[in-house]
Amino acid sequence: MCQRMCPLSYDEAQEVLESRERTGLAQVDADAGFDPARDAYPGSLVPAYVRGEDGRLMTATFIWGFDAPSGTGRPVFNTRIETAVAQLRDGRGMWVDAIARGRCLVPIRAFYEGHATERVKSERTGRPVRRQYRFRLPGTRAFLLAGVCADGRLSIVTTEPNAVVSPVHNRMPLVLGPGESSVWLGPGFEVLADRSRIRLTAEPER
Fold this sequence. Notes:
By secondary structure, this protein is of the alpha+beta class. Helices cover 17% and strands 35% of the residues.
């Protein structure tokens, strides 16, 4: 369950898109370190790439988290790909429109997961909290997560964890590798559910 990530800012995301259009390469400025103030959580505004009316990618900003289903009171900020694909096939469910017409790309520098059993002392409260691990795509300054959006809202698509993430958490964001953004935005996106070949690095935050 992804509930914290380090996204690019809107300006950074737009600059990446413009450099890609100019040179064919997505150029991302280096980041000297990870500032927690830049992290996004459910409810944050997050930039994402969507297809415009002309079919070209454009940068837009969304609130991370769909409105809660009736009676639950909690926003939904992750979308299980298995559930979304099943709902699309059946033609009913909260993800049908978003997975059919709202697939998007979320540019980030890292995402975080809390370990199921490891604990560290909270710097704020002094109480034990789950140790956070930072996951990155090696050899890149930024990478893309698969997302779905609708009505100004965004959700991160999740799938079964690969060998790097599974010791920490039982789900992982659907991380897109080189050349896979067009697959996610295309008709055969379901093939991306298997992330076993995606190489990630895992680093405890502290």
